[in-house]
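Self-study notes.
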Amino acid sequence: MGLSNITLNNFLVLGRAGMDLYAEPSGTAIEYAKSFFPALGGSAANISSAITRLSGSASLLTSVSDDSVGRYVLGQLKLYNVATDFVYTASGQVRTSLAVVETKAENCQSVLYRNCASDFELSVKHVQYINMSKFGALIVTGTALAKEPSREATFATVSKAINSNIPVIFDVDYRGYSWDSLNEAASVCNRLAELSDIVVGNDEEFDVLSGSMSGINHARRLSQSEDRIIVYKMGPKGSTTFYKSEEFFTGTYPVSPLKPTGAGDSFMGGFVTGLAQGLSIRDSVNRGSAAAALVVTRVGCSPANPTTDELLNFMANNAPKR
């Protein structure tokens, strides 16, 4: 596994980008909102902005609609210093994803609009000329696998990374509404997991992958071949990481959350930039957990991602639960 390449701290992130609209004031249910606060959203875009806020470099590989919402997303990516060289536009009736979200710790509602989503229009022609050698790793979010032609484009990009000895990091990112069936999701996502060097997912997502066995046992099995790192997240209960014969638990950082959204994306940003800096796997997981803890105390996802100074200060003054 070519994890040494990650030290380049430059990532190609494949997946969706969109616009989030947050009900205001904070704590307000969507139906009673006085106004809405717009922000960059979508799992791959949030991961990319998390990386750049933590002094890494990120290029997003996706497709947005050729309209004002797509242009909003492009503008926001540039504000976060996310490279847009591989953000393509799709014409016709496809649309950039839109999420209407509440900032509430309990019963938080997120209403997503993803009919004819533009990110699913990413195709093989968009990835064939990408030079993978400048990237330290490819990060793939699982939503990109749910539909064609995005699925084929994703596997083509993974193949290019493997042929260039660039590590593949798979964020399972299972969203049931995007898939035709649970069986299809399990089959396709397991295929990518077997090709990946690092797989990150929560307990629900590993349950999807597992089929007949439990999610945690499936995570353990995946780690026992090809020197693969598996991070099995359990929300506020912490996470278990598997690597070769090693297995260790990592706790979460106690905070008073405003909302639950954005934690997984920020975790990935903290985790991979930790690896890029040469931190151990355990310390990188702790870094990801700290980033996730900070994000849930703030409004938004990309706007809530911490800077390097904020993250280091938080970790210096707080300790994860054991």
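Second protein, same conventions, sequence then structure:
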Amino acid sequence: MDTEMKNLFSIEGKTALVSGGSRGIGEMIAAGFLNYGARVYLSSRKAAVCDATAKRLSDRYGRECLSLPADLSDLKGIEYLAKALSERENKLDILVNNAGATWGASLEQFPEVGWDKVMDTNVKAIFFLTQKLLPLLRKSASSENPARVINIGSIDGIKTPSFDNFSYGPSKAAVHHLTRVLAARLIKDHIIVNAIAPGPFPTWMLSSGVGFGGKIEGDGVDWDLVGQGNPSGRVGTLEDISGLAIFLSSRAGAYVVGQTIPCDGGMVAVS
């Protein structure tokens, strides 16, 4: 087989930043990247949790996983993260904009703070973190090997959400459209922008929504039961979400531009 074909899905030696990488989908993507040979920076709001996750993943995969904690809900935190990364790296191959927030309340009681927090974290942070990291992405980018930006949206931005989290779905719909806007502008700089819209995965966010109290495993946690409501009969796994992210970051995904790809076991297809 041709050498290039053998390396079609390789991200060996690439440097990635995963925001919201200390748990959930961000941690799953970071794990997949490390397992496939990338060097990964994690960022999340809670420094101790971010540090612990980075060490755990480094130990598990024998690859360098580094912690850069930052609060991305405001511009100050975004600028801090961009500066901290630029002091350590002269280029960035992959940016995964995964940091996110949700807020649950009834329609009648939904507060302004719940609207603003979700929109700031889920939409504004993606735009401004990408903006601030453009110098590092441009230094990595070439026509033969483009830099990649992967925005994490949600199927709740495609279909009507199941929960009363009224700012979350609209914020993710905005992420999907922002992805197309950024893709159209940045492809000429050899920076490819796409989005993934996850469905149900065993994360803290979904655990809170389905009544597991934020727990991922242990007593009272039954992901098989949650998966029964999915056309595929299960919730997603690390392999599902990281496999798609690796595809989008590799040569195999280099002609996919500005798309939002559901990773949901069929929930959007039957909605």
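Instructor comment on the second fold: The first strand starts at residue 15 and ends at 19.
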